[in-house]
Amino acid sequence: MSRLVTEGPAPAEDKADVPPREETPLARFWSEYRESPLAVAALLLVAVLIVLALVAPYIVPQNPYDLAQVDVLDSRLPPGTKSSNGKYTHWLGTDGAGRDLLSAMLYGLRISLAVGVMSGFIAMALGAAVGLLASYAGGRTEAAIMRLVDLQLSFPAILLALMLIAVLGKGVDKIIIALVTVQWAYYARTVRGTALVEQRKDYVEAARGLGLSHSRIVLKHILPNCLPPLIVVGTVQTAHAISLEATLSFLGVGLPQTEPSLGLLISNGFEYMLSGKYWISFFPGIVLLVTIVVINLVGDRLRDVLNPRLKR
Amino acid sequence: MLVTLLRRLMQSAFVVVAMSVIVFFGVHIVGDPVWLLVNPQADQADIEATIRALGLDRPIHEQYFHFVRGALAGDFGKSFTFGESALKVILQRMPATLELAIAAVVMAIIIGIPLGLYAGLKPQSPISKTIMAGSIVGFSLPTFWVGLMLIMVFAVMLGWLPSTGRGPTATYFGITSSAFTLEGLRHLMLPAINLALLKVSLVIRLTRAGTMEAVHQDYIKFARAKGLAPRRIVGVHLLKNILIPVVTVLGLEFGNLVAFSVVTETIFAWPGMGKLLINAIQSLDRPIVVAYLIMIVLLFVFINLVVDLLYSVLDPRVRLSDRAA
Fold this sequence. Notes:
The structure holds 2 protein chains of 2 kinds.
Chain A: H1 25-33, H2 37-59, E1 81-82, E2 89-90, H3 101-137, H4 139-153, H5 157-168, H6 172-198, H7 202-209, H8 214-250, H9 262-273, H10 279-306
Antiparallel strand pairs in A: 1-2
Helix pairs in contact in A: 2-3, 2-10, 3-4, 3-6, 3-8, 3-9, 3-10, 4-6, 5-6, 6-8, 7-8, 8-9, 8-10, 9-10
Chain B: H1 2-29, H2 34-37, H3 44-54, H4 60-72, H5 86-121, H6 126-140, H7 143-157, E1 170-172, E2 175-177, H8 182-214, H9 218-225, H10 230-268, H11 273-282, H12 286-314, H13 316-324
Helix pairs in contact in B: 1-12, 5-6, 5-8, 5-10, 5-12, 6-8, 7-8, 7-10, 8-10, 9-10, 10-11, 10-12, 11-12, 12-13
C-alpha cells in the first residue's frame, strides 16, 4: 500500500476539492457561544467553581469540621492572621468557632452546589416527564396538569418553600424535596410548550406511521428536540435553587448546622457583622454571589445561542 | 360575566380548602410541640394536662374539623408561645409588614421609573447601558445578601441609619406607622430599599420597554410637531401611557413583596408577620404557622382573582375563549 503515499510537497491544489468538513452540532454551538467573551469567562468560572467544590477536601488548609484541627482560641481572627499554633495563615480570617474561613467556604460551596445541582436535576427529570405527559396525552390530563402548574407558579417560590419547610422540617433531603417541588413546574411548562410544537411536525407523524410505540416516540423523538430550552431553563433554575437554599439556610429553616452551606456560613457571621467583623459573612457572600451571577450569565448566553428564532 | 365570576370564585374556594388541608395535616406531622412548652421538670400528669389543653389528644381529622369551624369564625386557635389568639397575634404584626411592602413599592416607583425612562429615551448612551446592566445584577442578587451589605455599609461603617427594629410610631387618621416620625422613617429606609431592590429592576425594564415602544407612536410625533416642550411630552403624554402596565404589574407583585418581606424582616429585626412566621416555624408554634399560611393563601387567591376578573373585563378575547371552553 506504500505506493499510495505520495511523496514531496502536499498536493495543495487538491484542497479546493475537499468538501468542507462536516461540522458537528457541538462544534457549531461552541463557535457561536464563544463570540461573547463575557460568557466564555463565566463558563470558565463555573468550571473553576465546580472543580474547587469537588476537590475541596484535598486542597483546604484545614478540615474545618475536624475538632482536632480547630482551636476556639482562634475564633474571629481578621483576614491574614496566623493561627495560635502557627500552623496556618488564615488568609480570609476565621469564623465564630475558630474555623479557617477559606476552608469552611470551600466546604460550603460544595454543599451549596451539590444541593442546587441535585435538586435541579431531579426537578428537571420530573418536570420534563410531566410536561411530556401533558402535551402527549392532551385533553383532561393536560388541562389538569397545566392548571396545577399555573396555580403553583402564581405563588412566589420562597413562600412555597417556606410552607414546605414548615411542613417537612429541616434536613438536606427535605430541602431538596422543597426545592424540587418549587421548581418542577417551570420545567413542565417549558417542555410542554416545546413538545406541543414538536409533535405536530412531520417527523413525529412519520414515526407514528411506522407504528412505533408511544414511549419510543416520546422518549426518542420528541424529548431530544425539547432539550435545548430545557437546558436553558435548567441552568437558570439551578442558580435559583442555590439562591433559594442559601436564603432558607440564612433564615435558619434550611440546612442543619452539620451541613453548612454558604447561606448558613453567612447566617453564622451575621451576628458578628454589627460589631464590625465583616469578613465572616462577607467572603461567603461574595462566593455565593459570583456563583449565582456566572451561572446566570452562562444561562443567558445559552438562551441566545440555542434559540432558533435568533439564528442568523 | 356572572358565570365567569362564579366559576372563578369556586376555583378560588377550592384552592383555599385544598391548601388548608395540606397545611394543617402537614404541619401536624412535624415534631411534638409539647416538649417545647412544658417545664423540663414536669411529670407525666402535667404533660398530659398540657396535651389535653391544646387539644392534641384527639384524632387528627377531628382536630381538622375543629380547626375549620374555628377558622370560619376567625379563630385559628391560641398561639402556643404567646398564649393569645393566633389571628390576633398575626393581625397585630400585619401593619408593620404592609408598611414595609408599601414603602418598597413607592421606592420602586420613585427609583425605577426615572431610570427606566432615561434608558428608554436614550438607549445607546453609556449611562443607559449601565442602568440595564445594573438591573440584571439586581435580579440575580439574593435579597438577604443585599440586606447584609446595606447594614454593613450604612449602619456599621457609615453609621448613618439604624439597622434594627421599627423605631417610634405615630398614629394619624387611625393608621399607626413609623413613616409619620422622622426616627421611624430612618428605621424604614434600609429595609424598604432592600425589599424594593428586586422590584426596582422590574420597573426599570417595564418602563424602558414601554418608552421605547411609545416614542415611535403617532401621538408622540404629533405632540412634537405641535412644538410642545420635550419635558411636557415625556412628563404628560408618554408617562400617562406607560404607567398602566407598570401599575398593573406592581399590583400583581404586591403579594410577592409580602412573601419576600420574610427575608427582609428577619435581617432588620422588623416586627412584622414574616419574622413571626420564621420564629413560629422554629418553635413549632403550629397555630401561628397555619394561620399565617392560610392568610397568605387567601391574599394570593384574592389578588389573582381580582387580576383575572379585571382582565376579562378589559379584554373581550378572554371572555370569548372562556365561553368557548
